[in-house]
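User: Before I run my own analysis I want an independent prediction to cross-check against. Here's the chain; please return only the structure tokens and, at the end, one sentence I can use as a sanity check.
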Amino acid sequence: MSGTSQQSRASDLPGAISSDHAITYHWFSGYSAQPGNILIPSIFMSLSPLGLHGEAGIVGRQIGRRKSNVLLKNINRIDNRRMRLHRLDLNALLVFDALVEHRSVSKAAARLNVGQPALSAALARLREYFGDPLFVRSAGAMLPTELALSLAGPVRELLQQAETIAHTRASFDPASTARRFSIAVSDYTSTVLMPAVIALLAKEAPRVQLSLRATPTPVNAEDQPTTEALERRQYDFAVVPAGAHSERHRSEVLMVDDYRCIARIDHPTVRQAIGALQYRTSLHAVVELAEGRGSMMDTRALQQMGLTRRVGPVVERFNLLGDVVVSTDCIATVPARLAVLLAQRLPLQVLPMPIALPPLTELLQWKASQDADAGCVWLREVLHRAAGTEARRTVP
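Assistant: Structure tokens:
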């Protein structure tokens, strides 16, 4: 492949809606890439159209960064050569930062969505420039040298400052903008909160495109979903439960919910109430995420109390619990606001919890570089207004 880039319009993208006010839903598990697209690893696409590049270039996959279109317009006016500062390949600093974090070539390559040979080539250029090995293999890990450790902080700060510059806008007018925002959400958040968000956008920003994407499964098992969503996939925001969030990124409480137990209306033994013993001995339908790697907050809370329950059907989405429960003798524990919505469309009874669980706290997360982005600041305010509207609704 050559090092040139092709621009794409929102209407050319999979799942896009061409109307002025488009809401696009993308639900998928894991990560599926389309070969042949150019990697957009970070804002340094604005420095080099070749991205992370060896002599011929690291050809990766576009990971869904819709905001790249604006950058590509500027890139097309730049000569197709790597931008260098005092002969330093600035794009290779992305490799350096990923290696400092993961201490593994394979994990760093997965984080940047590039091949290991290309990442090794970028590391070789850095070693040549600094005259230092930077990372030394030891016991299966790539350990940073003293020089690499001294560079880690300044490099991370440089990358964050560059992202801040890339996100800075002179002004933002919600009424006229046709900007596209992407948010990683669970099906709980999309069901309970997002209809109110969409209603506000329809009134205040009719041309804004909102792309709701399923909370992604991290490529690296030790990463949080937020890391995958904001860093690797370059979404604008992620809404995740407290405890499953990333300390690397900005966060604030978006909404808080309690739990309820649901059972079918004609359940043979559960009638309008359920005791602690019956709750623990009944068969439960439960949610597990990340291909079984992620247990839900209610499961963790019960485990921390030293309590067990009988687990039956396991699903990956909250909305599937209602259909499972209504057709079986299983019960399920779900956030209260979702329980009410499920009972509006299915013959379910919503019961108080016989065991007190900590409330479910959903956090809104974003990158620090977006603090100066007027559009992202505005959308955060919209999300909080919508959450406030939902919080005022009475939940039985």
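Sanity check: Residues 180-255+367-391 form a domain with the D-Maltodextrin-Binding Protein; domain 2 fold (CATH 3.40.190.10).
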